[in-house]
Amino acid sequence: MSTVSSRTETASHADVELWIRMYRQMTAIRLFEERVNELYTRALMPGLAHLYIGEEAVAVGVCEALRREDYITSTHRGHGHCLAKGASPDRMFAELLGKAAGYCKGKGGSMHIADPSTGNLGANAIVAGSVPIATGAAFSSKYLGNGRVAACFFGEGALGQGVVYEEMNLAQLWKLPVIYVCENNLYTEYTHVSETLAGDILARAKSVGMAAETVDGQNVRAVHEAAAKLVERARAGEGPSFLCCNTYRFHGHHVGDINREYYRSKREEQDWKKERDPLAVHAAWLVAQKHADAAQLEQIEAEVKAEIAKAVEFAINAPYPNQEEVDRDVYA
Amino acid sequence: MSTHEVVTREITFAEAIREALAEEMRRDSRVCILGEDVAEAGTPFKVLSGLVEEFGTGRVIDTPISEAGFTGLGVGAAMTGIRPVVDIMFGDFITLTMDQMVNQAAKIHYMSGGRWKVPMVMRTTLGAARRSAAQHSQSLHAWFSHVPGLKVVLPSTPYDAKGLLKEAIRHENPVVFFEDKMMYKMKGPVPAEDYTIPLGVADVKRAGEDITFVATSSMVQVALGAADLLAEIGISAEVVDPRTTWPLDEQTIVESVKKTSRAVVLDEGYERYGVTAELAALIAERAFYDLDGPVRRMGAMHVPIPFSPPLEDATIPTPQKLFELAREMCGRS
Lengths: 332, 333
Hints:
The complex is a heterodimer of chains A (332) and B (333). With 332 residues, chain A is an alpha/beta fold. Chain A has helices at 13-41, 56-63, 79-84, 89-96, 130-144, 163-173, 201-206, 220-235, 266-275, 278-288, 294-317, and strands at residues 71-75, 120-124, 150-155, 178-184, 187-188, 191-192, 211-216, 241-246. Chain A is 43% helix and 12% strand. Chain B has 333 residues and is α/β, with parallel strands linked by helices.
């Protein structure tokens, strides 16, 4: 497992800005998801809600290593990826509530947020569904020579679907600029990884000769450092890579997944929340290193909270699409 | 020379496909071909022979045997500035690409509220009669015709093949293009200069008065063959080729049936829950009171396509079977 290098003593102003920005981004995702939880339980949000709480460091660490024009693909648990890549919370909430002002005019919802302006090719509700799409975007980048990189987020559950292996083979054969980001949060829905995956996760990528490493997915600096290296490598034409981020889903598979003791203990959840919360881990480090003080972090939280509150209000007040919209956008 | 002379040659269906691809690849550097043995081998049917020599392996790209893999990659590439033509050697193998086509390609434009587009073409084949048995002989185009977001093309002549393929490549939506394997060597007139055929416009392949045959792809030749036989006994059959199952030119079909008052629909897909059912329903809904009798259907038998020649031949419509059915419908049996 890669660890964060000890260059903190000589941290540049840009480094500190990045670390603070990453704290802000993680806070935005956390507070966004807490409001999703609340909107859902108040029956204001239709459909399904899969919360990203606990995994924020993965999306933020990776997306901070990307440029705006770089591509991402996301998953059903995708709000964090979209926000980290630059989506604005107001249009995100609007989409979650099925409103016309949403990123997809309310036609996609929570599991399908897409945004060309931030390179977001879309969240996908087929578990490994976005893996070919990200690989295809990387193919375009190479074909067109535009230097863009694609980051493909998926959970460890996607490793059960064969198309992942077809894509990794193609990407490695053709040296495509794609980073496969596996979020190993230990559970595919309600089943522990030990019951779904045989063998070693990295061995899957290594079997096609792909660069592969594991990182502590609760440490945003570690994720960022690993991702930045792999992105740079991809941009330089050195091909794809696989980054396994060990992380944990603090909530259930979806908001309604309340009684979880049949598949994991409360003790396990408490341990992760207490010891391995990515926001707390990063905040403690920032304070210990004197890059920020508690008041500054509280200030960030207050600002983000206000922004999120405004976004929720915007979405609640936004109109639903007109019914004439129903058969528009079927064809371009 | 002030007058423009239209040069029309006789070329094969395969040559028409190859010309369409070559012309579009010359016109637009974003067009590329992805598939199994598409480059030096030019596919097992040799449809693509010569393309890699002109365009290189960077644009005519051999893939591993990973139909889902390279189809899905094509979807992502199409979203991000490339115009891939994905080659699925046998139509039976579309089963391996269903998530990529049905859940991804077909839905991305809609799910993104119109913000992403998937301008890709999947070329594949259909049709029995090659003694290739149950996994290399099916006509599964009804599956894709069932899915909103896809367009489905079924050319029946070299002229249609070239014009429709060029249109499909320039199109902004995912298009699935089914070629009848048995038709590759069929010759027909094709203009030398650039032309396209819009999707959703049927073509009356033969005009007639007494009965309408609505026939797709491989079944157009069956319908024309039956029409020749019927002419000998004084029955005039009209052959309407929809050319695309979606979008569907309902008007041309309905008008023809209203004129003739009798209809048989033919399609090489399985008859049950297939294209013939949809076309028959259309006629029943929109031309019922003009009909002299029930709409009849002819499609592939509801069996896996058998290997043994006499068995395989029994599964698909023939001109003779259609002739007999039409003669009976016209009260001449």
